[in-house]
Amino acid sequence: MAAPNFRNRTLYHGDNLPVLRGMNSGSVDLIATDPPFNKGKDFHATPDSLAAGAKFQDRWSWDDDVEGEWVDQITDDWPHVMNVINGSKQSYGEDMGAFLCFMAVRLLEMRRVLKDTGSLYLHCDPTASHYLKELLDAIFGRRHFRNEIVWHYSGWNKRMARHLERRHDVILFYAKGTTQVFHTPTRPWKSRDEYVAKRKQKVRTDEAGREYVLSDGGGGTRVRRYLEDAMAYGVPFDDVWPIPKLNNSDKERQGYPTQKPLALYERIIQASSNKGDLVLDPFAGCATTPIAAERLGREWVGIDLWDGALGIVRRRMEDNRQLLADIPTIHYETAPPARTDGGDEAVPFLQVTERYAEPEGPRMSRAAMYDHLLAQHGQRCQGCDRTFDDPRYLELDHNTPRSDGGLNHITNRVLLCGPCNRAKSNTYTLSGLRRLNRRNGWMAN
After folding, report:
1. Cα(255)–Cα(52) distance, integer angstroms
2. CA-to-CA separations, 164 to 139, 155, 168, in angstroms, rounded
């Protein structure tokens, strides 16, 4: 865990990936963010609103939006993550694969910057929620999944011809470690009658006139639970959160497309952080997370591409001045922070071995390495010595597996046929694979 290499109340303007890559590992307590949803459309702010001019495109193309560096990095270092991406391309379409690839490289960094006691709340909707959950399982580990929170909002239900009216979003809650900061969110009981109806127990009165119910005390004993004491704990929320959506007349409404209510993000922050903790929103938008964090006495940092983000943060701080001791100074940065913790790579839960530095010099792409090895060895599998008339039967792999610290460099690359690649997996080096093939009589000669 390293100290933050950025100041409290910093808003970074620009692509969040280089900013995330510049943040020290283990420096953030909570990430609460509302990224694009892969809705396949463009969003624009209300023209005469405070957020006028804000817009973003939520359309995705594998050819236009996916960087070759992302694909190479994920394929080489996190093949389980790439399996999820490729699966979504087959089951949904290339646009979902492109969206998940965009999210994957950022979620890997988000996990890295979280403290071991930190949590991620990722806001999405049914368009991509199931695919994002599978992606998060691959990055955080399925045992680190905590909840699928349903944000239920009311509205005028229409009679739909083929399906029910949709009235909810999804928030995926993951913990980085086995234990995380968590305070069960509660609400006050509406009345004594609500508590009594919920308990479904007979209410008794003691000599002093205090009401109580009898509860199981263990070992066959019964203990008194006084209503006034029990009701003081409040009603714990479950994973369905009925919070109204913002309408055009709400005071906190900024006109920003996809703006979420402060009450929603305040509940998240109260549940998974303590006062003074650092909250990050890599898709800050109109700054709902930073404003909620400020109101609750947390530190915060936000990142967004929108040119008007700084102005709207300042205006919203001014709008909330009655809840703040004074209007804080917002630090505005356009360059990513420089890491001071040694610069370890992002590592998902399933990658536990030591990594070694790559040799200096330009890094070849996977396509360039493939062509180089074809020119050097021909269309021959280096594992079994079989020659193929079509190079598509050959796959790029590592000599020493990445799980054993092998490099992505061309000096650690081989071309293998499909059966050899599967047999080698992340267990054997090339020489070990060849010994296995000879032992089993699988060599060409």
Report:
1. 7
2. 33, 13, 12
Residue pair 406/425 in contact (Cβ under 8 Å)? The answer is no
Q: In CATH, which of 3.30.310.180, 1.20.1250.20, 1.10.30.50, 3.40.50.2000 is domain 366-440?
A: 1.10.30.50
Q: How many CA atoms lie within 13 A of 202 on its CB side?
A: 3
**One-character DSSP codes across 301-366:** EEEE--TTHHHHHHHHHHHTGGGSSSPPPPEEESSPPPP-S--PPP--TT--S---PPPSSPPPPH
Helix (H, G, I), strand (E, B) or coil at 103: helix
> What is the C-alpha separation between 445 and 385, in angstroms, rounded?
8
Largest CA distance in the chain: 96
Judge contact between 134 and 148, C-beta under 8 A.
Answer: no
Chain centroid to Cα 101, Å, comes to 13
Residue from 416, 353, 319, 401 nearest 50 by CA:
319
95, containing H or E segment: helix 94-113
What integer pLDDT is reported at residue 111 of this predicted model? 97
pTM value is 0.80
Domains of the chain, residue spans: 10-185+237-333, 187-234, 366-440
Q: Can you tell me the distance from the alpha carbon of 106 to that of 74, in angstroms, rounded to the nearest whole number?
A: 11
261-295 pLDDT, tens digit each? 999 999 999 999 999 999 999 999 888 999 999 99
> DSSP states of 407-425 as a string?
-SSGGGEEEEEHHHHHHHT
* Integer Cα distance of 172 and 123 in angstroms: 6
CB count within 10 Å of CB 395 equals 15
Tens digits of residue pLDDT in 339-367? 999 876 665 554 434 455 666 767 789 99
Task: Assign domain 10-185+237-333 to its CATH architecture.
Answer: 3-Layer(aba) Sandwich (3.40)
